[in-house]
Write a structure and sequence with these properties.
By secondary structure, this protein is α/β, with parallel strands linked by helices. It folds into two domains: about 5-200, DHBP synthase, CATH 3.90.870; about 225-315, Threonylcarbamoyl-AMP synthase, C-terminal domain (Rossmann fold, 3-Layer(aba) Sandwich), CATH 3.40.50.11030. Helices cover about 30% and strands about 15% of the residues. It contains eleven helices and 13 strands. The strands form two sheets. Strands 7-1-2-6-3-5-4-8-9 form a nine-stranded mixed β-sheet, with helices on both faces. Strands 10-13-11-12 form a four-stranded parallel β-sheet, sandwiched between helices. Bound molecules: threonylcarbamoyladenylate and magnesium ion. Magnesium ion binds near residues 134, 142 and 215. The site of magnesium ion has 4 residues, from loops.
């Protein structure tokens, strides 16, 4: 795990404009000094991500909102005190501290205080904003373990801190508070029901149209294997119908469900929080098993289910390549 020396080493890498694989409670981030334009540009180069797609700025405490945003509405304070440190990102009108490089030239900035002790230790010691997208190549599966980052990015990342497996497993919930009413830009680790409770109002589940967010492209978060969605309880039957003719088919089901030959069994937790935590690992296992298709049942959309269903739908969407 992580020693005080490795925290100091990570801060040194950030200060000289390098890239750090940073554990957070959602997924591992590819971190750079948010105020160093060259370092931020390196993130885009390493990820292979279009430079117009904005990054989340990670900070150590909620009071940093005032320096990165020009106006911080009361809703932002309420959500921050309810969920930070934690898997929530707030989009606010940006201040001059947030550069075009980080915001993709938009007039807003995305901010988050992550709920992982290693990320927080780095942010406190660094004492600045850290831009960090998920530490995967563009369009591929987000990493939830240090070894995923090393396998994906190799020597393109200067240092990877090992904070163990990510506790939440799906990316942060993004709420846009820069307009007239709160918008859900991406379902994630904080259930939208919990956000609604704090704001005492309903929020549309359908993401707004004006948003330029790569996580909103149809085919994203996808393994190389095809992903096919099944009705609850219908995954094994659907997988069996596809198997044969030289096609290798996996089915993702809880331990209690029997998986007949010739299907490959990918085991998932029976509860939706567990599924969120393991989802990206299951995508990776499907690729390691070199299956052509992985079949998985769609969970209900309550709690973390909304984020899981969102990622599953994107993984199952038609691919351009
Ligand atoms: O859980 C997470 O959010 C992880 C960890 C590392 O913190 N980060 C993450 O970053 O998922 P990334 O870059 O893979 O996704 C960030 C999303 C993108 O869809 C991006 O377009 C959106 O946040 N975003 C960032 N700034 C924005 C802004 N100003 N307005 C709208 N969307 C924004
Ligand atoms: Mg990502």
């Amino acid at each position: 795990m992580t020693s005080p020396e490795s925290i100091a080493a990570a801060v040194a890498v950030l200060r000289r404009g390098g890239l750090v694989g940073l554990p957070t409670e959602t997924v591992y981030g590819l971190a750079a000094d948010a105020e160093n334009e060259l370092a931020v540009r390196r993130i885009f180069a390493v990820k292979g991500r279009p430079s117009t797609h904005p990054l989340i700025v990670h900070v150590a405490q909620a009071s940093s909102m005032e320096s990165w945003a020009t106006s911080v509405p009361p809703e932002a304070h309420r959500l921050a005190s309810a969920f930070w440190p934690g898997p929530l990102t707030l989009v606010l009108k940006r201040s001059p501290r947030a550069s075009d490089a980080v915001t993709g030239g938009q007039d807003t900035v995305a901010l988050r205080v992550p709920g992982h002790p290693v990320a927080l230790a780095v942010l406190r010691a660094f004492d600045g904003g850290v831009a960090a997208p998920s530490a995967n190549r563009f369009g591929r599966v987000s990493p939830t373990r240090a070894e995923h980052v090393r396998a994906d990015l190799g020597s393109d990342v200067d240092l990877v801190l090992d904070g163990g497996p990510a506790r939440v497993g799906v990316e942060s919930t993004i709420v846009d508070l820069s307009g007239d009413e709160p918008l859900l830009l991406r379902p994630g680790g904080v259930p939208v029901e919990s956000v609604e409770k704090v704001l005492e109002r309903r929020i549309s589940r359908v993401p707004g149209r004006k948003i330029r967010a790569p996580g909103l492209l149809p085919s994203h978060y996808a393994p190389r294997a095809g992903v096919l969605l099944a009705e609850p309880g219908g995954a094994v039957a659907k997988a069996l119908a596809l198997a044969g003719n030289g096609r290798k088919v996996a089915v993702a089901v809880p331990e209690a469900v029997e998986v007949p030959e010739p299907l490959v069994a990918l085991r998932i937790p029976a509860d939706v929080d567990g599924l969120a935590r393991e989802l990206y690992t299951v995508f990776r296992l499907a690729d390691e098993a070199k299956v052509d298709v992985a079949v998985i049942s769609v969970p209900g959309e309550e709690g973390l289910g909304l984020a899981v269903v969102d990622r599953l739908r994107r993984a199952a969407a038609p691919r351009s390549s």
